[in-house]
Design brief:
Two copies of one chain form a homodimer.
Chain A (H helix, E strand, L loop, with lengths): L35 E6 L12 E6 L6 E6 L7 H12 L6 E8 L5 H16 L13 E8 L6 H9 L14 H10 L8 E9 L2 E10 L9 E2 L9 E6 L5 H13 L5 E2 L9 E6 L16 H24 L7 E9 L2 H13 L1 H8 L5 H9 L12 E6 L6 E5 L2 E2 L4 H8 L3 E7 L5 E8 L3 H8 L4
Parallel strand pairs in A: 4-5, 9-11, 10-17, 12-16
Antiparallel strand pairs in A: 1-2, 2-4, 3-8, 3-11, 6-7, 7-9, 12-17, 13-14, 13-16, 14-15
Helix pairs in contact in A: 1-2, 2-3, 5-6, 7-9
């Protein structure tokens, strides 16, 4: 019997996880939208006093600020999700503040959890400049971390109060350092703060959009607009100084989400806390009317395209920093009857444990790719017309491994060359229609098991 | 920045995978059904000459032999699946032989793959005793192993021919050793041969049922009857000496599958090759009429219940020997509106990478259990009525961790005690109906990544 157990005594040789430090970007102060104050502090949710765990973000614009969000569709929505959803709904898509803690998700915490999330919102409201609006609440809430544990609410409230403008402890600011502090406070198992910014022009006025997100694990978002929302803990916050009507902001965000955060997977897990929100405060042009799809489709389309491109940037950062990830893999499914079919197959390939362990092993195991694709019911696909190829990111020629249902005599050297790159693609042509979808995923390593086999301790 | 990268230099301490040798069972020769000859040989699909890679199973009964099967629902069905499906269909549910190879799945091998599978069937037909039946083909085919590689068909055909009764190399037999050889030839990454037998009585006649299966990885079956079949590579073969009509054999197998193999998951992967088949040769009572649901419901119900219980035994063995598994976990979902809802949630929990890594880490992370459950759309569930508990296998008291939506102050010592057992359960009460479903799953370890990160080499 001894040979049956030979694997038991094997030793595991561990590939080092490559540093992702080069994806952290230092930006000029001028890259950021006007009219926001931000900071990140250590409030005491996490033990280590060097680690930031509370972010405060305030819109200080004289204009009203529009807010839109996409929340997890999980049946067990965390308290901060329920609270933020309610505020957005009561305010008709207006909010001026955001408070975020990492280290504890405040999820499945019962009645007390809701009280805690409300307390965070109310405490942050006190930091905002006075407003003549009729709204009772102004601040949205996000939490990320362990599920089922209560927040150390007193420490958090104290952390928020320390940012009062009259306190010397306040570190709220609008420069790069302030934005970076906020981005750092979002982090859980992330290895670098995810902060990006870009500028765009509509009718001669220059606007800025900037934002941060966090991810790493429990990442397979399928978020929808408020109260209708399915998957990930992914938190994202996008801030712009353009003026956009609440309804059009939500429409643009929902569109962007379907082409960005809803097309990434780290581990196929939908969290109780996933939230991406966008604030638009109009500070770049205080007298401009709000962009709205029904009154100025052209301006709206530019904004929607910019928001989408920016959301894709932020979403990809999460995959790059996926827990234990050593690869960034673009999965492209072509020739599907509908976009939904293509998206479903790309999602299945991107979440397959066997595909992802093969990617980690730099093994061009296209059989697993096909097997995963085939596990999605799709009656119109004829296996004889299906092709698979690996696409290098360095501009060199892609490698067909299955052509019209027949396996190629694969050049394993070349396959290894492609798969040893940090970035590459897998392309599958179904020849059953003209729709396509793109997904971004990472590999599945020992490090993922290590991080998640011992997360709470 | 250095703290963001601290995990990169961490060392991984690896828990040894417990030996599963005690699940291998030696059985008396008398435990097996009459009228079958079996063997397992080394044909050369696998490199190591000590490893069996070809099983031949023949029904030698004078009676006609009924056959039924459930195949993978994968869109890219392997050649042996297509060939077996066609034979069963042409013969109206009759077949007398089975030939199985491990080491190569003969999947996505194009036209040549089909020719190879047919050649295996035809070559094995020649080993069968002459028959007066009008059928052109008698032998079903199964393959398991790497996808997208061609079979070494000449070696396989030579291996089959070596079992001709006039050859001194023939090792076909009906004793325990012969059954064990066949079971060993099914194995891929399995660590022990999976062979079980049981007896049952219908109206005073004693029948026997025995069988073998293999699994380990790519296990999340969702198999259906021929030509309608969705998920796993799982191969199973069940042989009985009862006489059952083809139609009732298929009905009974489909029923049994839904309560056994379709309720297990190792890694959530549906393979191109999954097949479970059953042969019923009537050898125990040559003059008995075939059991049929329409003519003798009582006898049929006994047979169906026995087949189901046996299929559950075989299915659980696959989970016990899941690739890298150190735990055997029973997931019980209660209080669902429908069985399908309960099954869907149990399946989601059983495939969650975060739940499975927590199980490996012996971490009572019930938040992940709930988060996974919540990712399945289920509008009727009120989080305030949901409870979760961990159930030890040693008869001691179970541990409630979430009671009616409120987290308990969990006794972590006791939780650790339960989770350090090899067998335990997770029970989730939805309080949204009266249906329940049970799933069997395993944990997700470094060893899984090792096995699958380097499978082909």
């Amino acid at each position: 019997m001894s040979r049956f157990f030979k694997r038991l005594s094997s030793t595991i040789s561990i590939k080092p996880i490559p540093s992702k430090a080069h994806h952290h970007r230092v930006l000029p102060d001028s890259a950021f939208p006007a009219g926001y104050l931000l900071t990140g502090v250590h409030a005491g949710v996490k033990k280590n006093a060097d680690v930031l765990d509370l972010a405060v973000i305030l819109s200080t614009s004289q204009n009203t600020t529009s807010a839109a969000a996409c929340f997890t569709r999980n049946a067990f929505k965390a308290a901060p999700v329920l609270v933020s959803d309610q505020i957005l709904s009561e305010n008709g898509g207006r909010a001026r503040g955001l408070v975020v803690n990492s280290g504890c998700a405040n999820a499945v915490t019962g009645r007390q959890g809701l009280d805690d999330a409300w307390a965070m919102s109310i405490e942050t409201d006190a930091l905002l400049p006075p407003s003549t609006s009729r709204f009772k609440h102004h601040t949205l809430v996000m939490s990320t971390g362990v599920i089922g544990q209560r927040l150390p609410i007193d420490s958090i409230l104290k952390g928020i109060r320390s940012q009062t403008s009259t306190e010397s402890s306040s570190t709220l600011g609008s420069d790069y350092a302030a934005w970076e502090r906020a981005a750092k406070a979002f982090m859980t198992t992330d290895t670098f703060p995810k902060l990006r910014a870009r500028a765009f022009t509509i009718r001669g006025t220059e606007y800025r959009i900037a934002g941060m997100d966090k991810g790493a694990g429990m990442i397979h978002p399928n978020m929808g607009p408020a109260s209708t929302a399915l998957h990930a803990t992914l938190l994202g916050c996008i801030l712009t100084d353009a003026a956009v009507s609440p309804r059009s902001l939500q429409t643009a965000l929902t569109y962007a989400m379907d082409r960005s955060f809803n097309c990434i997977s780290v581990d196929g897990e939908m969290s109780t806390n996933d939230t991406v929100l966008v604030l638009a405060n109009g500070a770049a042009a205080p007298n401009a009317v709000e962009i709205d799809e029904s009154t100025d489709k052209e301006a709206y389309d530019v904004f929607k395209a910019e928001l989408t491109a920016f959301a894709i940037d932020l979403a990809q950062l999460v995959v790059r920093d996926g827990e234990g990830a050593t690869k960034f893999v673009t999965v492209n499914v072509k020739g599907a009857p509908t976009y939904e079919d293509a998206h479903r197959i790309a999602s299945r390939i991107s979440t397959s444990a066997l595909v992802k362990t093969a990617l980690y092993g730099e093994d061009a195991n296209w059989g697993r790719v096909l097997s995963a694709a085939g596990s999605v019911p799709l009656p119109n696909v004829d296996p004889k017309n299906v092709s698979v190829s690996f696409v290098p990111s360095d501009g060199t020629k892609s490698l067909g491994v299955l052509v019209n249902g027949e396996p190629e005599n694969v050049d394993e050297e070349r396959a290894k060359e492609i798969l040893s790159l940090e970035d590459f693609g897998i392309c599958i042509e179904l020849s059953a229609g003209s729709e396509e979808a793109t997904y971004w995923t990472c590999d599945f390593s020992y490090e993922y098991v290590r991080i998640n086999g011992d997360y709470r301790s």
